Amino acid sequence: MSNYNAPVQDMTFVLENLCNMDGLRAFPAFKETSSDLVEQILNESARFTGEILAPLNQSGDQQTSTLAGDAVTTPAGFREAYARFVEGGWNGTPFEPEHGGMGLPWTVTTALQEMWQSSNLAWSLCPLLTIGAIESLIAHGAPELQEKYLEKLVTGEWAGTMNLTEPQAGTDLSLLKSRAEREGDHYRITGQKIYITYGEQDFTENIIHLVLARLPDAPSGVKGISLFLVPKFLVNDDGSLGARNDTYAISLEHKLGIHASPTCVMAYGERDGGAVGYLIGEEHDGLRCMFTMMNNARLNVGLQGVAIAERSYQHAVAYARERVQSAPVSSGGESVTIIQHPDVRRMLMTMRAQTEAMRALTYYTNSALDRSRHDHDGDARSYNQRRTDLLTPVVKAWCTDLGVDIASMGIQVHGGMGFIEETGAAQYFRDSRIAPIYEGTNGIQAIDLLGRKLLRDGGAAMEELLHEMDGITGTDTDDAELLTILDAQADANRALRRATEWMLDPANNDTDRKFAGAVPYLHLTGTVVGGWLMARAAIAARGGADFPEVFLNTKRITTKFYADHILPRAAMHLAAITEGGDSVLALAEDAF
User: Residue 49 domain-assigned?
Assistant: First the structure.
């Protein structure tokens, strides 16, 4: 398996040129986040992920996590790597110093998380869930809960989980059956949850579960769900650990990928009359509270698409540089390394260009999140919140769908050797496949984009984005290559505008037909916004950004490839949206 080398230079370029780090530094919360500090943090994280996490990726996949009795054992080296992670303070990077964090922008933490996920996706899922639990506790937890649990969650000494799904209740959480009974200052939780990532592990001495359950007098449907904090060990008033709570992992799921990550079936209240839990937020308002964690997780899961694509790309490039096969098509003669063959170049460039566009979109969306929380101007905060809300389902779904495609293409670059587990290429494909499914399947993300984001506000947030994207296409330049890129972007922008107008047209009132095009509309949005950010990168590269010329030239070439090969997909998506709904719905149910 190839080494992992974090693309720090590309990450830094995106942060400085597409996320306007100088603007973020103008906010009091980030005034200490100098470019030198960011560079130092990124380089140190690159060292940690390259030397500590990446070497455990393939061995962890082969060993898997195991459950014996009540105890989960993670693969060799995982627990020690997590201890090093906590010692380095990495878990707390985006959280306020008052909670024990480093106070970095989410934008910078996104780059760090990409490294964790690229180097060892299965390992990285533990801190991912913990970070989401912290967000929910900060937003909705009572002060006494925050005082007792936040600090050790922020440091990573304790880990967090998210408990939503039950065998009969996946996307439709109105069907969940877990129960909560009031008992003094706490509640007793009973029920089972499935697919609980790191529900049990040997990394931390305590695990803080966030669990959705119903009270006896709860109204029906999702409005009757409450959210509870359920610790593995109860916590005494002095912060020490008390008795074992009635919460246990009773089995581990056998999965296609991420084998090293223990995905648990969790039982609450089956041994001692109910697990002690503490209400987060208000009774019957649990789904809103949980969505704070879920939205954080959706951005981070989208980042997994970026991360697995980057790792697969690096692996494919390393193989293509070494594998000797066939003579050049142009000249014959001796066999050459396959990276010299045009079709292998096409595959590698497709992997590279889409990965860069995905990275740009994910980092950019997190920079909008930072601005929505810290800008001193209320209108600017609202503007950036709309932008974050609009792009979150695109980040989650577009990036994870492409992550699977790119990992699959990585296998193709390897040829037959890619289908053999020993080369490692297959693991990236297997690991990538869960990301389009969890935290809301990608079809649900498309419905969210179309229904909750576009149709609900009459296209206002999308119009703001389209207006901003149109602004770049009129850039004054005499550079022929850049003009070609901008012309392609202008065509793609028009396709997204036409699709948006079609969706919003009041005469087009066939809801099923509209939503038959929801996934193509999401992919159209990702393709076009990714192109806009790539075009901005090309402009920055031609404007003499403070990076080596070789790097800047590579950035320009990659953007030109995106304009030539990826942006034309916009027309395909537009046709599927405006003309393809009837054929989606035409076949009778019994004809399938």
Answer: yes
CATH number at residue 121: 1.10.540.10
Q: How far apart are alpha carbons 353 and 306 in whole angstroms?
A: 11
Q: What is the pLDDT at residue 456?
A: 93
Indicate which residue of 114, 200, 439, 463 is catalytic: 439
DSSP letter for 424, please.
S
Choosing from 256, 284, 312, the residue where a domain stops is 284
Give how far the C-alpha of residue 401 lies from the chain's centroid of Cα atoms, to the nearest Å: 11
Structural domain ending residue among the three candidates 284, 315, 339: 284
Within 8 A by CB and 6+ apart from 70, the residues are 200, 248, 249
Instruction: Please report whether residue 434 resides in a domain.
Output: no
Q: Which residues are within 8 A (CB) of 69 and not within 5 positions of it... i.e. 6 or more apart?
A: none
Q: In the prediction, which pLDDT does 170 show?
A: 81
Q: Are 234 and 275 in contact (CB under 8 A)?
A: no
In angstroms, the CA 216 to CA 432 distance is 40
Nearest to 86 by CA among 48, 139, 43, 121: 48
- The interaxial angle of helices 8-17 and 35-48, nearest 10 deg, is 150
Identify whether the C-beta of residue 523 lies closer than 8 Å to the C-beta of residue 573.
yes
> Is pLDDT at 493 greater than 60 in this prediction?
yes
d(CA 100, CA 153): 9
Q: Same domain, yes or no, for 42 and 137?
A: yes
Give Cβ neighbours of residue 527 (< 8 Å, ≥ 6 apart): 398, 492, 566, 567, 569, 570, 573
Please give the residue range of the domain that contains residue 87.
8-142+149-155
Q: Is residue 503 a contact partner of residue 454, using CB atoms and an 8 Å limit?
A: yes
| 157 labelled catalytic | no
User: What is the distance between the terminal CA atoms of the chain, rounded to a whole angstrom?
Assistant: 42
Q: How far apart are CA 548 and CA 439, in angstroms?
A: 39
What angle, rounded to 10 degrees, do the helices at 106-119 and 286-322 form? 50
Q: What's the residue count for the chain?
A: 592
- Is there a contact between 395 and 301 (Cβ–Cβ < 8 Å)? no
Residues 481 and 549 occupy one common structural domain? yes
The pLDDT tens digits for 9-59 are 999 999 999 999 999 999 999 999 999 999 999 999 999 999 999 999 999
User: What is the SS3 assignment for 123-155?
Assistant: HHHHHHHHHHHHHHHHHHCCHHHHHHHHHHHHH
Tell me the per-residue pLDDT of 418-445, one tens digit each, with 9 for 90 and over.
999 999 999 999 999 999 999 899 999 9
